[in-house]
């Protein structure tokens, strides 16, 4: 009876932690969507590798979301194969997350370089590509920024260099000449690279807290799944 009660407890814990994983999956999906919406303009004008980051978070959330249902079914039906598959998949996801965290830390300076290059390329295409022009204008308005490093970056673009102007999306005041002979009094002095980095630093603690919480529950889920696998394989009655 003690063994049976213990296995019932393990089964309940596996089921409970799968519910937690389901919540974690929903959280990652929400974070991915939020990052895509909030940084959408910056990611469009940047490189493909940067643009894939919110999508990767979103995909990971969807994967965890479905694996949690798989684990619930395995625990409920006491299927050794399903519980084993759940534990293996969860272990793989945990290792991928660790690798991604290490890569993110190692290449954090590369992200700044990629964003800067993407912004510079978009500025060079401003006025020539309607889609890039619209995205860059929206980015400067939404982040209250101008240029990549600062508003003087536009002086290196041929179409603005000749008449000493900047795009009207740089204007901090709404006048007909706000973008002519720009100065900190009329246009945003801060560059978009700094604004984007500020947004990321402001929200990185939330992302880190969510990631740590998910990793903690993943470890517990793997442990309890292994315990349930052992019980099922030993032929204990868990119902």
TrEMBL record:
Transmembrane segments: 12-35, 55-76, 83-107, 204-229
Keyword entries, A-Z: Cell membrane, Endosome, Glycoprotein, Lipoprotein, Lysosome, Membrane, Palmitate, Protein transport, Secreted, Transmembrane, Transmembrane helix, Transport
Any one Gene Ontology cellular component term annotated for this protein: plasma membrane
Origin: domain of life: Eukaryota
Xref: InterPro entries: Tetraspanin/Peripherin, Tetraspanin_animals, Tetraspanin_CS, Tetraspanin_EC2_sf
Topology versus the membrane: Multi-pass membrane protein
Pfam families: Tetraspanin (PF00335)
Keyword Ion transport among UniProt keywords: no
GO BP field: cell differentiation; protein transport; regulation of vascular endothelial growth factor signaling pathway
Family, similarity comment: Belongs to the tetraspanin (TM4SF) family.
Assembly: Interacts with TIMP1 and ITGB1 and recruits TIMP1 to ITGB1. Interacts with CD9. Identified in a complex with CD9 and ITGB3. Interacts with PMEL. Interacts with KDR/VEGFR2; identified in a complex with ITGB1 and KDR/VEGFR2 and is required to recruit KDR to ITGB1 complexes. Interacts with SYT7.
Function: Functions as a cell surface receptor for TIMP1 and plays a role in the activation of cellular signaling cascades. Plays a role in the activation of ITGB1 and integrin signaling, leading to the activation of AKT, FAK/PTK2 and MAP kinases. Promotes cell survival, reorganization of the actin cytoskeleton, cell adhesion, spreading and migration, via its role in the activation of AKT and FAK/PTK2. Plays a role in VEGFA signaling via its role in regulating the internalization of KDR/VEGFR2.
Protein name (database record): Tetraspanin
């Amino acid at each position: 009876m003690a063994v049976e009660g213990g296995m019932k407890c393990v089964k309940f814990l596996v089921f409970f932690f799968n519910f937690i994983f389901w919540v974690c999956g929903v959280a990652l999906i929400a974070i991915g969507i939020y990052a895509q919406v909030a940084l959408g303009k910056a990611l469009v004008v940047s490189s493909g590798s940067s643009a894939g980051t919110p999508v990767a978070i979103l995909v990971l959330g969807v994967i965890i979301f479905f694996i949690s249902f798989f684990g619930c079914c395995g625990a409920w039906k006491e299927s050794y194969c399903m519980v084993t598959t759940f534990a293996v998949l969860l272990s793989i996801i945990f290792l991928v997350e660790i690798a991604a965290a290490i890569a993110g830390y190692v290449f954090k300076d590369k992200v700044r370089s990629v964003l800067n290059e993407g912004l510079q390329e978009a500025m060079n295409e401003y006025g020539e590509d309607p889609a890039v022009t619209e995205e860059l204008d929206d980015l400067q308005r939404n982040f209250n920024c101008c240029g990549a490093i600062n508003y003087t970056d536009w002086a290196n673009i041929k179409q603005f260099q000749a008449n000493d102007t900047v795009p009207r999306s740089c204007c901090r005041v709404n006048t007909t000449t706000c973008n002519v002979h720009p100065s900190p009094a009329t246009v945003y002095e801060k560059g978009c690279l700094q604004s984007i980095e500020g947004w990321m630093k402001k929200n990185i603690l939330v992302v880190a807290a969510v990631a740590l919480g998910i990793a903690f529950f993943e470890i517990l889920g793997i442990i309890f799944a292994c315990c349930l696998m052992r019980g099922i394989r030993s032929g204990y009655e868990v119902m």
